[in-house]
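Input sequence (237 aa), recorded before submission:
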Amino acid sequence: MTKYYYIKKTYKPYKKWLRVISLLIFFVGSAISTYIFLPFWQIYFSSPITPEEITAPIPQGSIAAVDYTDASSWFPEFEAPSAMKPIISLYTLSIPKINIKNAKVSTENTDLAKNLVNYPGTGIPGEIGNAVIFGHSTLPYFYNANDYKTMFTNIFRLKTGDKIYISLDNKTYSYKIYGIDIVSPSDTTIFYQNFDNSYLTLVTCTPPGTIWKRLIVKAKLENLSADRQEKEAYARL
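Predicted structure, token format:
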């Protein structure tokens, strides 16, 4: 006759904790992966700029001695034309789309650790010409809205039609973005002056956190009247 034995299994609580710990590790790992790779997804796939434009070879030669907090180092082949000292030494820039509010822009220094820089020899907002404004960027998860060394991190999110506001001399000027481009540090055409209207050119490094290329955002003043254009053009004669 066959005998059957029933063995009562003892409950092992450690198995439950193993499952809990495994799930916890999975979710923490997923969160870390998202934190690291989401910015790259946003830059390469959600940006209006194509991945082919952003990808660039690593530049040859040493860059250890170059101070990239000095805006004059960004385009080494460009020599700023001699110009009179601007009447306006400081103004502010706001871009609601990327939560930049009243960022200081200096026309007197090129120190990007202290402020954004209106490059010497280029235009001034509100006047005809092209105001070229430099700002630092970094990887998106290092962005700090109060740190000028990261101020332009998110301008890759901007698209044509977005607005940029300049507050200067108790007036606010509204500019609309009409173009976004990527250029090499040897391309100095961004400094060209066009006197048929008032323009802004925002400049930062790309991909964020590198110094390989320059991301360019171009905007045009919306409310410069034809009469004012004619008067300012006449004053330059």
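Checked by second reader. The first strand starts at residue 90 and ends at 95.
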